[in-house]
Records
---
Amino acid sequence: MAIIAVAGRKGGVGKSTIAGNLAAEFAAMKRSVRVLDADPQHSLVAWAAQGDGMLARAVEQVEGGDGALRARVRQAEKDADVVLIDTPPGAPEIAYEAALVADLMLLPCGASPLDLFALKEALSLALKARAERRSKKPRIRFVPSKVLMSTNLGRGLASSLKDMGKKVLPPIGQRIVVAEAVASGLTVAEYAPNSAAHEEFRELAKAVDKVLRK
Ligand SMILES: Nc1ncnc2c1ncn2[C@@H]1O[C@H](COP(=O)(O)OP(=O)(O)OP(=O)(O)O)[C@@H](O)[C@H]1O
Ligand SMILES: [Mg+2]
C-alpha cells in the first residue's frame, strides 16, 4: 500500500496528467488504484467523465480542509494498493494536508525558470511536512514535465532540477497524444498504448515503484 501525492504551486505543469496516467500504469502492474481528486477545479473528475476508461472507475472527488482528505485517504487505503492524490496549484493548505499523509510526493516541473522558482516553494512545503511528521516521509522526487527535448531549456531541465538537491525521475515529454487522450476521457495507456508517450509514463511508474519499495 502506497500513498502518492502530486503537487506544485504552479498551475498547468502537468500534475493531473501525471496523476491520471500513473494510475493507469499501476493498474497495468495489477495494483488496485484509487485516485483522489483534491483539486477544487476537479480536473481529474472532468477528464474521467469524458469517457469510460479506467479513470471513470478509479477517480473520486474529495474536498480538502479540516482533515477531510486525510480521513478519505485512510478509507481508500483499506481497499487499494496505490492511492494517488491530485492537489491544486496555489492552495498550499490542501497540498500540505496531502504531504502529511503521503509516502511519496511527486513535484512535476516544466522547463521555464518561472516553473523552477515555484518548485522551490513546493519543495519547502514538502520539507515542512516532513519536519512536522518527524519522518523521512514524504519522500520527494522531481518529475520533468511537458518537456520539449528539442529545446536547450528542455534538455537542461533534469540537471537544473538535480541542482535543487532532490532526485529526478524520468521525464514526460510534451506530446499531443497526451492531450488527445484527455479529450477522449482515457489515459495514454488506453488511448495510445504503443506511443512514445506511453513508454514515458511506463518508465516513470517503474521509477516511482522503485522509490516506494526502498
Ligand atoms: N506531457 C504533456 N504533453 C502535452 N500536453 C500536456 C502534457 N501534460 C499536460 N498537458 C496539458 O497541459 C495542460 C495542463 O495539464 P494539467 O492539467 O495536467 O496540469 P496541472 O498542473 O494539473 O494544472 P492545474 O495546476 O491547473 O491543476 C492540460 O491541457 C494538459 O492536457
Ligand atoms: Mg491539475
---
Amino acid sequence: MSGRVHVVGAGVAGLAAAVRLAEAGRAVTLYEAAPHGGGRARSYFDQALGCRIDNGNHLLIAGNRSALGFIDAIGARGTLTGPGAPVYPFLDRASGERWTLRFNTGRIPWWMASPARRVPGTTFGDYLKALRLRRARSGDRVVDILAPGTPIFRRLWQPLAIAALNTPLHEASAVLLARVLAESIGAGGAACTPLIPREGLSETLVDPALAQLRRRGATIRFGARLRAIEFGADRATALDFDNGSETLAASDEIVLAVTAPVAARLVPDLVAPDRYCAILNAHYRVAAPDNSPFFVGIVGGTAEWVFRKKDVLSVTVSAADRLLEMPEDDLAASLWRDVAAAYALPADPMPPVRIVRERRATFAATPEQVARRPGARTRWRNLALAGDWTDTGLPATLEGAIRSGVTAAGILGAGRRGAVENALSDKDFGFKVAPPSQSFEPLSCR
Ligand SMILES: Cc1cc2nc3c(=O)[nH]c(=O)nc-3n(C[C@H](O)[C@H](O)[C@H](O)COP(=O)(O)OP(=O)(O)OC[C@H]3O[C@@H](n4cnc5c(N)ncnc54)[C@H](O)[C@@H]3O)c2cc1C
C-alpha cells in the first residue's frame, strides 16, 4: 500500500505537488514554516494602506500551461482577469510615446510585419534576428545574442526579459530566455494573453488549493519549520520539526519544496543556486479608472511594469538590487512620477504608498547559477525536490515552480509503479508531466 507523502513548503511548488498527489489518492501532509501558505506569491492585509495587497505583482500568460492546469485543478480559473487579448500597452518615459503591442492570436506571427501592431521604430527583420536565441548555448548571455542599444532591445526584449529572468541582461542566461519565448511568443499570440488575479494571489493560487487539499483529507500544518532530515542508506527516515519529529514508515515519501538555501542546509551535498536578485514593488492606494489598462509597461523610467488593481496601482521593478538602498521617499516619488504618467493621473499629491523589497526574490538567472540547479530526483529513493530553483528549464516563475511540484509528484508516483502513476494522467492538468529524463538525472546530489 502507498505510504503518506510529506510535502514540506506550501509555496506554489509544494501546493502543486500536494494537490497532484491528493488528486491521485495519496495521503498527504503539508508542512509550512510560516502561519500561511503561498510563500513568495501571496496576499495580505497592509495596515498602512488599509487594504489587501500582493507581496508582488505576478503576471501569468495563457501559455503557462502548468500554472493554468493547477488553477483549473483547484477550480480557480474564474478568479483570473485580464484584457482578454494578447495586448501589451507601453509608455516610453523618455519620448512620451505610447503604443500597444498587439500579437495576432494564431501561430504565424504576422503581427511582426504590421507597423500598427509591432513596436514603433522596429522592423520585421529586427524580430527575425531574435530567432538566433534558438541556437543559444548554455554559457551565452542575453546580450551575446540580442544586441543592446537597438530600439527593439530597449522597447521590447529588455522589458520582457528583465521581468521574466529577474536578472540584469548582461549576466542573464540566453537559454532561459529562449525557453520563455518558445512558450510564449513562439507558441502563438494566444499564448501571450495576459492573466491577472482579480482579487489577489492568495485568492487565485493559495486559498483554493488549501481548500481542495482539505476536501481531499490532507493534513495541513502551519508553523511547522523543518530543522533536519534524518537519512538512512538510501532513504530519508525521519523529519525533525521545531515542534516535534515525524518518523517515516518504509513506504512514506517526501517532497521537499522549500527555498534553495533551506534545501541546501537540509540535504547533504546538495548543489543549488546561491545568488539572488531583488524585486521591488511599490503599492499606491489610488483608484485608476475602470476602463484604463490592466497594466502598462514602462520604458526608460524607474518603474518597469504598473498594474491596476481595484484601488491600488502597483509597480514592479525587477533586478532591483541597485534601488534597495535608495531613500524610501526618493524612491516612492520617482516611481510615482512614472505611475502617474502611465495612468494619466495628477503627479501631486502622491497617494499613500507601501514599498516592498524582496531581496532574495529569485535566484540570479545566470549561466553559472543555472548550472547549479538540481533535478527533482535525489539519491534517496523517497525524497524528491521541488521549487522554482530546481532544474525546470524555466526561470524562477510561478510556471516553473508549479511545474516542478507536479514533476516531483510524478517522480514519486513513477518510482513505485502503482496506482499513483496511473492516476497521474496528463488530462488532470492538461499537460504532460515531464518524464524523468536527462534533466532529472542525479545532477542533484553529489
Ligand atoms: C516580488 C516578486 C514578484 C514576482 N513576480 C513574478 C511574476 O510576475 N511572474 C512569475 O511567474 N513569478 C514571479 N515571481 C516568482 C514566483 O513568486 C516564485 O517563482 C514562486 O512563488 C516560487 O514558489 P516556490 O514554491 O518554488 O517557493 P516559495 O514560494 O519560496 O515557497 C517555499 C515555501 O517553503 C517554506 N519553507 C521554507 N523553509 C521551510 C522549512 N524549514 N520548513 C517548512 N517550510 C519552509 C517557505 O515559508 C515557503 O512558503 C515573483 C517573485 C517575487 C518575490
